[in-house]
Structures are given as structure tokens and as C-alpha cells.
Write a structure and sequence with these properties.
By secondary structure, this protein is an alpha/beta fold. It has helices at 2-5, 13-17, 21-34, 41-54, 65-75, 92-100, 119-123, 145-155, 207-216, 239-248, 252-270, 299-309, 338-346, 358-374; strands at 58-62, 83-87, 104-108, 130-134, 158-162, 170-171, 174-175, 182-186, 200-204, 276-277, 285-286, 292-296, 347-350. It has 2 domains: 16-250, Aspartate Aminotransferase, domain 2 (3-Layer(aba) Sandwich); 252-374, Aspartate Aminotransferase, domain 1 (Alpha-Beta Complex). It contains 14 helices and 13 strands. The protein is globular and about 70 Å long.
């Protein structure tokens, strides 16, 4: 009876971290004893380990994923008068970072199967003021990068990969964040690789950009103390968070495997159900399922049913960025990005974490099937 009535959270961080509690506490004790709380040895060690994991030449940590985007834009000298094309179907920080450096975000539509940036929509929005493209690797699957990079090359544009939801995902053996000029990561606690607060990272294969990013994250500091080469930020990953992430990183592949197993089971239970569209993995992609997002007829009705059954769910994202109030001055209107607008009315993300028990997963799927049959 318990299994049919207990709450099922969208993400169970407690269950996820419990097996590592001893190691995490030991890491805390190590940092506490060192008194090196800012840019301590664990920060440099984590950067090295992450660079090796994704196959990037340089990994530069920072305070959070939003700052990572701002730092990337500043490193590429993008600012007032410049336009940056990105997806309208993403978390606010993607476009917000563009506005924060004084540039203008230009919103493109999505591919309806992957929810990622549509290259044709990007191409239609390139102008003489366009300086960069920011593809977002949404829900744990990469945007196909070949057409994006081809557009960038043809028009002399820079590419920043927003891989906040995709650490460890790959396309044809190349990791998210390592293909464009700069990639950005987030270690927010709900991510597949999450710390115990905020944390972020930048990836690049360009040594000059890496040096600039290291300066920018510490106010723009030059080689001499209190001498500044750039107008930067105070955006450093705490040593305590780096120590936690070092404990977790070796487990990331097995955690992603658990999510993929649960995704495969959902595919079995929900595939072919009328009114339900399960996620599609594109050819050549290694999906990490940061979210398992389905399309549902009467999505709002299903969300209400989940709430009544105490099952966690979330809508990523209910209102595309081009019609958000904060970007109203740009004149975006309904109909500009029809695929994103349709997705915003249909998508819902359900529990997918590796610690989800089989009976819990089957209960979630059963409720979805019942809802679909009644809709």
C-alpha cells in the first residue's frame, strides 16, 4: 500500500547523495583544515579532472552557470550594439546573460523533436550586427553542432555552447561544451552533476580565451596584484564546492547510465500511447536525461493529477523567452516561434533520477497512461 501512496519527488537529492556522505564530509574536513576557501587546491584539481573528463584543453570554474555565460560573452568582447542569436525555449539565464553585457538577444525557434535550436531559424535571423550564436543543449541532449558551426564559419560568428543541462552528453564522441569557442556548465544541485549550492564552469580549447576567462572571473585581474586588464566579475567557485564535485565526478557516468535505464523503461511503458510523445534521441547522440520530458495532450490536467497524487513534475518552460515581459521592448509576439510556443503548452518533465525505484517509475507511467486514456 505504501508504494501506491508515498510521494515521489521530481528529484531525490537525499537518496542521490547518501552513499557519498562519508566522502563528502571528509572533503569538507580537508578544506576546513587547509583554510584555503577561495581558489584552493581542490579548485585547480577539479578543473583538471573536468577538462580530462570532457576532453577540453582548459576548464575554468566560476560561481554559477549564469556567470559562466556572462564571462564567455565578455571574453569574446560582445557588448552594446551586438546581436546574439539563441533559442527562445530555455531558462532565462541564456538570454539574460546577453542583455547583462549590453547586447541584444535574438530569439530563434526550435526543432520540435529535440527541443533544441533550429539551424534554419538561426540562419533567417543573422544580420550585420550578429556576433555569436548560443545553442542550448536542452534536457541533456546536445544540439546538432555541425550546422551551427557551419553557419558560424560562413558568417564569421562565435559560438557559445550552453551545456548547463548536458554535462557528460556527447555528439559523435565529442562532449557538450567542447565544440564551440566556449562551453558553459552549471553545477546547480538539481543537475546530473550538482554541488551543494551554486557553481559553474567554462570550457575552451583556446589558450588565449582561457587566460582571459581566468582574469575575468577575478575582477579582470592582471599578472600583478591590484593591476587590472579587464572589467571582470567576482565569480569564483568555492573550494568547498569544488571538493564536493571532485567526490561526485567519478560517479557521473554510472548516474547517467541509471537515468538512461529509466528512460528506456519509460519508453517501453509510454511508447505508442495515444496523446503521449516520449523524448527522441537523435542519431549519434549520447543523451544524459537531465530531464525526461514528454508531450501530453491536456498537459495542465496531467500536472494537476500529479499534484493530487503527490508526484513531482515540472514544466520547462511554460512561456518562451521572446514573449516574456522583460524582453517586450524587442517586439516579440506570439507566432514568431511557433514550435517553441506549441512545446510550451505541451511539455512536462517527470522523475527520471537513477535512484527511482521500479515500482515508483511504473506508478508514474500508469498515471500518465490513465490520463491519456481519459483525455
Amino acid at each position: 500500500m505504501r508504494a501506491m501512496t508515498e510521494p515521489i519527488p521530481l528529484l531525490d537529492i537525499g537518496a542521490h547523495q547518501a552513499p557519498l556522505e562519508h566522502e563528502i564530509r571528509a572533503a569538507f574536513d580537508r578544506v576546513l583544515a587547509s583554510h584555503a576557501y577561495i581558489l584552493g587546491p581542490d579548485v585547480a584539481a577539479f578543473e583538471k579532472e573536468m577538462a580530462e573528463y570532457v576532453g577540453a584543453a582548459h576548464a575554468i570554474s566560476c560561481a554559477n552557470g549564469s556567470d559562466a555565460l556572462v564571462l564567455a560573452l565578455k571574453a569574446l568582447e560582445i557588448g552594446p550594439g551586438d546581436e546574439v542569436i539563441t533559442t527562445t525555449f530555455s531558462f532565462f539565464a541564456t538570454a539574460g546573460s546577453v542583455a547583462r553585457v549590453g547586447a541584444t538577444p535574438v530569439f530563434a525557434d526550435i526543432d520540435p523533436e529535440s527541443y533544441n535550436l533550429d539551424p534554419d531559424s538561426v540562419a533567417a535571423r543573422i544580420t550585420d550586427r550578429t556576433k555569436a550564436i548560443i545553442p542550448v543543449h536542452l534536457y541533456g541532449q546536445m544540439t546538432p553542432m555541425e550546422p551551427i558551426m557551419a553557419l558560424a564559419k560562413a558568417h564569421g560568428l562565435r559560438v557559445i555552447e550552453d551545456a548547463a543541462q548536458a554535462v557528460g552528453s556527447m555528439e559523435a564522441g565529442r562532449a557538450a561544451g567542447t565544440i564551440g569557442d566556449i562551453g558553459t556548465l552549471s553545477f546547480f544541485p538539481s543537475k546530473n552533476l550538482g554541488c551543494l549550492g551554486d557553481g559553474g564552469m567554462l570550457l575552451t580549447n583556446d589558450a588565449e580565451l582561457a587566460d582571459r576567462l581566468r582574469s575575468l572571473r577575478v575582477h579582470g585581474t592582471g599578472k600583478k596584484r591590484y593591476h587590472y586588464d579587464h572589467i571582470g566579475l567576482n565569480s569564483r567557485l568555492d573550494t568547498l564546492q569544488a571538493a564536493v564535485l571532485r567526490v561526485k565526478l567519478p560517479h557521473l557516468e554510472s548516474w547517467s547510465d541509471g537515468r538512461r535505464r529509466n528512460a528506456a523503461r519509460y519508453h517501453e511503458l509510454l511508447g505508442g500511447v495515444s496523446g503521449i510523445t516520449t523524448p527522441k534521441t537523435l542519431p549519434g547522440m549520447k543523451h544524459i536525461y537531465n530531464q525526461y520530458t514528454i508531450r501530453v495532450r491536456d498537459r495542465d490536467g496531467l500536472e494537476a493529477r500529479f499534484k493530487s497524487e503527490k508526484i513531482g513534475s515540472a514544466i520547462y518552460y511554460p512561456l518562451p523567452l521572446h514573449i516574456q515581459n522583460c524582453f517586450a521592448a524587442q517586439g516579440g509576439k506570439r507566432g514568431d516561434c511557433p514550435e517553441a510556443e506549441r512545446a510550451a503548452n505541451e511539455v512536462i518533465s517527470i522523475p527520471i533520477y537513477g535512484e527511482l525505484r521500479a515500482d515508483q517509475l511504473e506508478r508514474v507511467a500508469s498515471i500518465i497512461r490513465d490520463h491519456a486514456a481519459a483525455s
